[in-house]
């Protein structure tokens, strides 16, 4: 369970402060498939960056799996992020000089995974197969389509078996059919592995693929829609 309790975030801009989040209180259950929607500037990225421990709130409390994140040191936050969270970005953020295989393997190397190198290679191959890219292991990102690059990014996010995957507009740079296929893949992984997904989107079709929608407006939760209410 992820709990946000009265989270606010203000950004200093010159002498004035911009309120990006004005008191967000939400709960995200383990295994949930959650969309964050709302107009540009409503606070989607800010909220996801706070949950992803990439940014700190100005006030309020964030708990992940019963652990109060505010109490952690910088080093503990980094460690928590590495061990429990996976990220998928809008622009894929793949490393262009590395192959598909090496891009997916990288988080395991950074996390100093206890796997032996043959176990690690097996794990990487398995995740690459999972996202439908077997046979492409030796390709560089530039040799792949946008949808295929986003599959690599999904594989890279999943290889460490995170509790939560955070994806800020993962389909923004894809055509709508490819975007829907990427979402279906995320949903399938969510169902099969019980991995919690939190993604933001501007696309109503993509949003409606979620089981739980958090609608933001001007830094507040305007409405929450749960699957059972549909
Ligand atoms: N680093 C920053 N410095 C100052 N203001 C910021 C910063 N990041 C975001 N903001 C402001 O905070 C508010 C929320 O921005 P945020 O990026 O969270 O919106 P968003 O919902 O993700 O928008 P979009 O749909 O365009 O991605 C906006 O008013 C934005 O201008
Ligand atoms: Mg954003």
From TrEMBL:
Origin superkingdom: Bacteria
Gene3D superfamilies in alphabetical order: P-loop containing nucleotide triphosphate hydrolases (3.40.50.300)
A Gene Ontology term for the protein's cellular component: plasma membrane
Cleaved signal peptide residues: none
Domain ABC transporter: 2-230
GO molecular function per UniProt: ATP binding; ATP hydrolysis activity; transmembrane transporter activity
InterPro entries: AAA+_ATPase (IPR003593), ABC_transporter-like_ATP-bd (IPR003439), ABC_transporter-like_CS (IPR017871), ABC_transpr_LolD-like (IPR015854), MacB-like_ATP-bd (IPR017911), P-loop_NTPase (IPR027417)
Pfam families, A to Z: ABC_tran (PF00005)
CDD domains listed in its UniProt record: ABC_MJ0796_LolCDE_FtsE
Family: Belongs to the ABC transporter superfamily. Macrolide exporter (TC 3.A.1.122) family.
The protein, known as: ABC transporter related protein
């Amino acid at each position: 369970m992820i709990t946000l309790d009265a989270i606010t975030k203000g950004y200093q801009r010159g002498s004035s402060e911009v309120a990006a989040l004005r008191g967000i209180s939400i709960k995200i259950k383990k295994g949930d498939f959650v969309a964050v929607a709302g107009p540009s500037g409503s606070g989607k990225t800010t909220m996801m960056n706070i949950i992803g421990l990439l940014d700190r709130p100005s006030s309020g409390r964030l708990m992940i799996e019963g652990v109060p994140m505010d109490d952690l040191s910088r080093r503990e936050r980094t460690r928590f992020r590495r061990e429990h969270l996976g990220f998928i970005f809008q622009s894929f953020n793949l490393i262009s000089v590395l192959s598909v295989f090496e891009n997916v393997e990288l988080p395991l190397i950074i996390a100093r995974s206890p796997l032996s190198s043959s176990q690690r290679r097996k794990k990487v191959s398995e995740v690459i197969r999972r996202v439908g890219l077997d046979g492409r292991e030796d390709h560089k990102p530039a040799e792949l389509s946008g949808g295929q690059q986003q599959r690599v990014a999904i594989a890279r996010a999943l290889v460490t078996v995170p509790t939560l995957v955070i994806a800020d507009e993962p389909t923004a740079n894809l055509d709508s059919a490819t975007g829907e296929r990427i979402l279906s893949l995320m949903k399938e992984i969510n169902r099969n592995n019980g991995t919690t997904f939190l993604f933001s989107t501007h696309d109503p079709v993509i949003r409606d693929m979620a089981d739980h929608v958090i609608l933001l407006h001007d830094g507040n939760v305007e409405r929450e829609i749960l699957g059972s209410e549909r």
